[in-house]
Write a structure and sequence with these properties.
The protein is an alpha/beta fold. Helix content is 56%, strand content 7%. It has helices spanning 2-9, 27-40, 63-74, 76-88, 97-112, 134-142, 159-166, 168-171, 184-205, 215-225, 229-239, 246-256, 263-278, 285-300, 307-314, 321-327, 348-353, 368-386, 406-413, 416-424, 435-452, 454-463, 468-483; strands at residues 16-20, 44-49, 116-121, 149-155, 174-178, 332-333, 343-344.
């Protein structure tokens, strides 16, 4: 952390800093800490935390417009230059990434002379088909034009990110810190400090935990974390359980873990241990399938869904879903409120549970193709059952902008599950390689939907300001039907 702060303070340092690390090494935690400190010091111009869990946070086209808005809010000089630019060219946000950065970021920063730091976290989680990161390619071409601005970036060393930082224009302007190359003793010391701090906080809230945990237990936990901060974070969440005692939870965790596991194996063993506790003890195939269905929706949803919406999509009773999620809550961002969206606590969990080479127990494994199929048929079935003409009961011939209570009408007539289905069903069309196996299920459902509910679907997309999704959905459908 001190190295990064020294880079921020010294204007002679490179304008770009890449915090490079494998999954679970703490990149996002460091990025958030740096952003908080920069904000407190008045140096943070803007930040964008990419996330594959949210559609609007994995879209490359939204990074520069979002940063421009944040910069305009903070710096009046920047705002005075940006606003006329946008008014004269309101389509800037839809142009190429190069034009976006040049017009929305570089020109206003250059002309205003603003000195600031911009944070972009988890670049690897943005959707990008190029061999080298498109954002990094643009950054390398333009960053030299704004010498008073620094960019702090994080991301896994995936090939397109790595290749982006190897581009000649960017390579010479970038400092790099590799988290997984830090001396293991230093990492272990930081993880031990995290455990100690977390357990002190936990014991202050719970009774009967005096002189706990024992030093031997803390030693075992630190050893089994294998240098991964995400292991430590998930372990603490598992131990801090309301239904069981914390002592029992810690004992369960330590009994199920192997000593001397390498980094990847340690995390996989932790996830397996937690899932073993989450799934029913009686090995009931029906109960297992229900739990997998719920977890499948959580990890494959285009945008996070609430427990009540998950229940509606899957045809479960609303009260059945929160208990299933609660059993695995240490792996999820989850609240008891059935209207609060649920998502994975860390991206390494979806990576684990969808990979048969890592999640080897068939009780827990979630094959993406099978669960996308279930997701798709659930969306189509819900739309077939509930879509109706003029669902929001709008007056004839009226524009959306003229309906003062449009949001209220949407809330009353288009529940979150139906809203998700209308906007995102096409994202779950199975990969072309699996068409022969799934065509008998999907093709009739698609035909029925398009024949009976097409206009009602378009009406809902219109009131949701999501008509562009219809183009994507029809293109995906056409591609499917052409192959069938």
């Amino acid at each position: 952390m001190n190295t990064i702060e020294l880079w921020v303070r010294d204007p002679s340092n490179s304008p770009v800093y890449w915090l490079n690390g494998l999954a679970g090494t703490g990149k996002s935690t460091i990025a958030k800490t740096i952003a908080e400190r920069l904000f407190a010091d008045g140096q943070l111009g803007g930040s964008f935390f990419c996330s594959r869990d949210f559609e609007d946070r994995r879209n490359l086209q939204l990074i520069f417009p979002t940063l421009a808005i944040q910069l305009a809010r903070k710096y009046p000089k920047f705002r005075s230059i940006l606003v006329p630019l946008v008014r004269s060219d309101p389509q800037i946000a839809y142009e190429s990434l190069y034009n976006q950065m040049n017009k929305l970021i570089v020109r206003p920063l250059e002309q205003s002379g603003v000195s600031t730091v911009i944070v972009i976290d988890a670049l690897d989680e943005c959707e990008d088909e190029g061999s080298a990161s498109a954002i990094l390619s643009v950054l390398g071409r333009l960053v030299s034009e704004i010498p008073k601005v620094k960019f702090f970036l994080t991301g896994r060393p995936e090939s397109r990110i790595y290749e982006g930082f190897r581009l000649p224009l960017l390579a010479k302007m970038t400092d790099m810190f590799v988290l997984h190359d830090v001396e293991r003793d230093q990492v272990d010391s930081d993880i031990r400090l995290f455990f100690r701090t977390s357990f002190l906080e936990l014991t202050s809230r719970r009774s009967g935990l005096d002189n706990w945990p024992a030093e031997e237990q803390l030693d075992l936990l630190c050893g089994r974390a294998a240098g991964l901060f995400v292991y430590a974070a998930v372990a603490v969440r598992f131990i801090d359980d309301d239904k069981r005692g914390q002592r029992e939870q810690l004992d369960l965790l330590l009994e199920s873990q192997k000593v001397g596991a390498h980094e990847g194996e340690a995390l996989d063993t932790l996830y397996t241990s937690i899932l073993r506790e989450a799934f029913s003890d009686d090995d009931d195939p029906e109960d297992d399938a229900k739990t997998r269905s719920v977890l499948g929706v959580v990890i494959l949803a285009v945008n996070p869904l609430s427990p009540s919406a998950i229940a509606t999509l899957l045809g479960f009773d609303t009260e059945d879903v929160p208990p299933l999620l609660s059993l695995a809550k240490s792996l999820l961002v989850f609240q008891e409120d059935p209207s609060y969206p649920v998502r994975p606590f860390h991206k390494s969990f979806p990576d684990f549970i969808t990979d048969p080479a890592r999640c080897t127990n068939p009780r827990f494994h979630i094959p993406p193709a099978d669960h996308h199929l279930q997701f798709l048929t659930s969306c189509l079935g819900l739309m077939d059952l509930t879509l109706a003409k003029n669902a929001c009961k709008l007056p004839d011939g009226v524009a959306n902008s003229d309906v003062n209570d449009l949001e209220q009408r949407i809330e009353e007539n288009v529940d979150p599950a139906l809203r998700y289905s209308c906007v995102s069903w096409h994202a779950h069309l199975i990969d072309m390689d699996t068409i022969p196996a799934h065509a008998p299920t999907i093709t009739p459902a698609l035909h029925q939907f398009l024949e009976k509910k097409f206009l009602s679907w378009l009406e809902v997309l219109s009131v949701l300001s999501a008509v562009s999704n219809a183009v994507e959905a029809l293109r995906a459908t056409a591609g499917w039907l052409e192959v069938c």
